[in-house]
Design a protein that fits this description.
single chain; 413 residues; alpha+beta; Beta Polymerase, domain 2; Hypothetical protein af1432; 3 domains; two-stranded antiparallel sheet; 19 helices; 11 strands; 51% helix
């Protein structure tokens, strides 16, 4: 039995980045031997075990053979005679196909048959072999690594291979869960725009997210959007979300906030009247198709519908402010409203020349919400009940009190 540290831990150490998770490959062992030494089996599709003390993953060396379409169409072979080199050869990128000997510190000598260390030094994302084309998830992984390592470029031959895979329909067989998983990781990377640039370059964006692909080439008002192109604006918004360390729900909302502009009638351009409603409908179908988590869907829906009103909220009356808070469900879900406001700030600052601008709408609406929350709705409800009022009548009294409180606050500003 020989044990090697592989993959991301080795790559990140060579990059000088923190190593958070370590993966290990075991050569020359059987599942029975692993269990006999106390390792806990967890692999469903191939033999993976948890170390009895560290709980880190130890996988038996394996090979993979294509047997069908999509990422599940593989026959996995794991046996004691499978070598480390064979295991490394099945991996996606050269920078992920490096191993070190079994020193727990990872300080052992490098085993690098595909010159991954050289590609790390050259800042290149390059596929290991032609077997790359057998798994369409690898297209998403390359795009995600481009977002995580924004100073890396995709090797021309790798990008061409990705284009061929898309042209042959491989991406059409990806399951929703895997697309969302990789998309979410890319959105949370250091420079999310790179993921979408790579997906566009290979043609995958139009297959996987046609609603997003349609934003490129669509003009918008230069007065409010100096970058003019809606797709260019989207990339700036995504990178602003990363700069502001926004959570996933906010970053997905940023991705989907302008979908309706891709369906604006040509005779209306560069105006986009009604794009909020159209965008919310497109978002609904996209989220269902990719099985996007409920919290991400809900935040994105509110941002798509209300970002224009939030941008203009400095001019709203007290009554209009309360109606906006109600439409955003801010009184019931204040944390979601905070995410909505953050996404709107990313939208406002994700424009050429606006990156360092202030966004006063966010603190102002946060303060307005606090004022509305200060109204004692339970006391008002009790007083209304004593007068024989119920239902909508009580709600109207509470709303009136909130409007009065916000109006008083506005007058004091």
């Amino acid at each position: 039995m020989q044990i090697y540290m592989v993959g991301g831990a080795v790559r990140d150490r060579l990059l000088g980045r923190p190593v958070h998770d370590r993966d290990w490959v075991v050569v020359g062992a059987t599942p029975e031997q692993m269990r006999a030494q106390g390792y806990l089996p967890v692999g469903r599709d191939f033999p993976v075990f948890l170390h009895p003390a560290t709980r880190e993953e130890y996988a038996l060396a394996r090979t993979e053979r294509k047997s069908g379409r999509g990422y599940r169409g593989f026959v996995v072979h794991s046996a004691p005679e499978v070598t480390l080199q064979e295991d490394l050869s099945r991996r996606d990128l050269t920078i992920n196909a490096i191993a070190t000997s079994a020193d727990e510190s990872g300080a052992g000598c490098l085993i690098d048959p595909h010159h991954g260390a050289r590609d790390i030094a050259a800042r290149v994302l390059r596929h290991v072999s032609a077997a790359f084309r057998e798994d369409p998830v690898r297209i998403l992984r390359v795009a995600r690594f481009a977002a995580r390592l924004p100073d890396f470029t995709v090797a021309p031959e790798t990008l061409q291979l990705m284009r061929e895979m898309v042209a042959h329909g491989e991406t059409d067989h990806l399951v929703a869960e895997r697309v969302w998983q990789e998309l979410a990781r890319g959105l949370m990377a250091e420079k999310p725009s790179r993921m979408f640039e790579v997906l566009r370059a290979c043609g995958a964006l139009g297959r996987l997210l046609p609603e997003v692909e349609r934003l490129w080439g669509v003009p918008q008002s230069a007065e409010h959007h100096p970058e003019i192109d809606t797709g260019a604006h989207l990339l700036l918004v995504l990178d602003m979300a990363a700069r502001l360390q926004a959570p996933l729900a906010v970053r997905f909302a940023c991705l989907a906030h302008d979908l309706g502009k891709g369906s604006t009638p040509a005779d209306m351009l560069p105006r986009h009247i009604g794009h909020e409603t159209r965008g919310a409908e497109l978002l609904k179908h996209l989220a269902e198709r990719l099985r996007v988590p409920a919290d991400c869907r809900a935040t994105a829906d509110k941002v798509a519908r209300e970002h224009g009103h939030i941008h203009c909220s400095n001019a709203l009356s007290a009554a209009a402010l309360v109606r906006l808070l109600e439409r955003c469900d801010a009184l019931r879900l204040p944390q979601r409203f905070a995410d909505i406001l953050l996404a709107c700030e990313c939208d406002a600052r994700g424009r050429l020349g606006f990156a360092e601008s202030a966004y006063p709408q966010r603190p102002r609406l946060t303060a307005a919400l606090a004022v509305a929350q200060s109204v004692h709705s339970s006391a008002i409800a009790a007083q209304a009940a004593a007068r024989g009022l119920a239902g909508p009548q009580v709600g109207a009294l509470i709303r009136r009190a909130r409007v009065a409180a916000v109006a008083q606050w506005l007058a004091s500003q």
